[in-house]
Design a protein that fits this description.
Two copies of one chain form a homodimer. The first copy, chain A, has 155 residues and is α+β, with helices and mostly antiparallel strands. Chain A has a single domain, classed as Thiol Ester Dehydrase, Chain A (Roll), CATH 3.10.129.10. Chain A has four helices and five strands, in the order E-H-H-H-H-E-E-E-E. In chain A, strand 4 and strand 5 form a beta hairpin. The interface between A and B is medium-sized, with 29 and 29 residues. Strand 2 of chain A pairs antiparallel with strand 2 of chain B, so a sheet runs across the interface. Chains A, B: InterPro entries: HotDog_dom_sf, MaoC-like_dom, MCH/BMMD. Chains A, B: This is Acyl dehydratase. Chains A, B: It comes from Sphingobium amiense.
Chain lengths: 155, 155
């Protein structure tokens, strides 16, 4: 079934799939933070010691980028899903629930929580997904609701 | 006044400040996408030509990382603001309104839209901000509502 395209009409509320894992190294965490989020508590344990983080933590925007990396990998293993994705228009209710630390191994789950046809664009539907990322202790570190555009079955 | 800390009590709904600009190059856009979001329409114009993007576009997660880069730079110019920031717990209503293209120059505005004391943690308050990013044509490309934790004035 790998070549069969999963159209909007084929998605069911409650559908879920898992993705990952991926491990984030200290070198990667510091390099990302130095480029995009150079707050001291993302750059050194010494600076983090005086904050509520305690030790160095991964930038929250690095965590969302790692979500995308895992998600795209999973999509590329399912060409029928990738073929029908039209990207995301946005994200609701993004929450960083606890710090991600260098050395942590993340994995995630995506669940379809709502779908509706587009009134203005019949070639696509709108799908709301609940994403949860977990660390290696199975603790949730991030939740969010990406709003995806999904191709409808050609008439 | 640069050394004066801007505590939670000093913030007023309607306060705003501008940040940026920053220009994203094609090399940076492709490098970020190759690492974190290797969907074909982020990697080459040829692949983007068959999608609604038309030409290569910047990953939405690269755009949020560029927001953070501009925002941290602006905070570092205002030590009193930086000293009181305790990071963000999340983001509501993130919307990628139109594609960001390699070569685009982005800037942004942050406006305080709501604030409330924390019942469980008297040392901090919760501040909701409306962020808008614009391109060089002054078109909005992204809006979102970061939810920040902010230090309260010591008793």
């Amino acid at each position: 079934m790998a070549d069969d395209i999963i159209y909007f009409e084929d998605l069911t509320v409650g559908d879920s799939f898992d993705f990952g894992p991926i491990t984030v190294t200290r070198e990667e965490a510091v390099a990302f933070a130095a480029e995009f989020d150079p707050q001291p508590f993302h750059l050194s344990d010494e600076a983090a010691a005086s904050t509520h983080f305690g030790t160095i933590s991964v930038s929250g925007w690095h965590t969302t980028a790692l979500f995308m990396k895992m998600f795209v990998r999973a999509m590329q293993k399912e060409p029928g899903r990738q073929a029908a994705s039209l990207g995301a228009m946005g994200v609701d209710e993004l929450r960083w629930l606890r710090p991600v630390r260098p050395g942590d191994t993340l994995r995630g789950r995506n669940e379809v929580i709502d779908k509706k046809a587009s009134k203005s664009r019949p070639e696509m539907g709108i799908v709301r997904n609940k994403v949860t990322l977990f660390n290696q202790q199975d603790e949730p570190v991030l939740t969010m609701i990406p709003i995806a555009m999904w191709r409808t079955r050609p008439a």
